[in-house]
Amino acid sequence: MAPTVLLAVLALVALVAPGLGVAPGCDYPAHRWCSSRDIAAACQVESRCSSLPHPAAAPVQLSLYYESLCPACREFLVLKLFPTWLLLPGEMLNITLVPYGNAQERNVSGKWDFKCQHGPEECLGNMMEACLMHEAKNFSTFFPVIFCLESGSSVTKNLEACLQIYAPEVDSGRITACVQGDTGVALMHHNAQLTEALDPPHQYVPWITINGKHTDELQAQAEASLLGLVCQLYQ
User: Fold this and answer.
1) 60-66/93-99 β-pairing
2) Any idea what DSSP says for residue 158?
3) 77-105 as b/e, with b when 16 or more CB fall inside 10 Å?
4) Which end of the chain is more exposed for a tag (fewer CB within 10 A), N or C?
5) Regarding beta strands 207-210 and 60-66, do their DSSP bridges make them parallel or antiparallel, or are they unpaired?
6) Per-residue model confidence as pLDDT tens digits over 109-120
7) Mean pLDDT over residues 26-38, rounded?
8) Total-model pTM
9) What's the burial of 65, exposed, middle or buried (CB within 10 Å: 0-12/13-18/19+)?
10) Which residues contact 228 (CB under 8 A, 6 or more apart)?
11) Angle in degrees, 0-180, between the axes of helices 182-196 and 120-136, rounded to the nearest 10
12) CATH number of 60-233
């Protein structure tokens, strides 16, 4: 039965026999009985409402702990994570990127200093991407740029070109200032804290958490078929 016809029938019932089939706690006019799930439940007519709005499911939360020059990290981000993000509606998958990985930090005369697994260039790449996220703010703006950097010939030398292609509205000068100033250091210290707080502690990179959890099984599923895993988990 069409929703408009159903509402007309319900309204007629309410007019002809006000007490017939109406729940005691239903204080709504008949034309509103199918307007929301709460009202339909109060009036005990859920089974008669064919097009009730459904609450949106929570997105699957994926966090990627990675290093900018790590080959396996780049492969996962470029070949698995970015394509999956492109294919899925925005409400299904929420991604957090944490560039730090196996880096180490130490306090030198009151200032944080970082040592990275693949050398100083990786530290620079990590900080550039952290500063890019900080300045661009919107995930849909900075993720294509990071994809461009990670899939190109040089993570640290292609920023200007990648911005021109994917995010021309982002000022590269602000990213450079972030990298060269205290903000970049603070961002990397924050990423260090996030990485060191992982439970269980990360043992390798890329390190993937799904809905805040990491298991060997989830990691393997994400690396084998991330799209399938997200579709399986999305309620």
Assistant:
1) parallel
2) -
3) bbebbbebbeebeeebbebebbbbbbbeb
4) C
5) antiparallel
6) 989 999 999 999
7) 80
8) 0.78
9) buried
10) 221
11) 100
12) 3.40.30.10
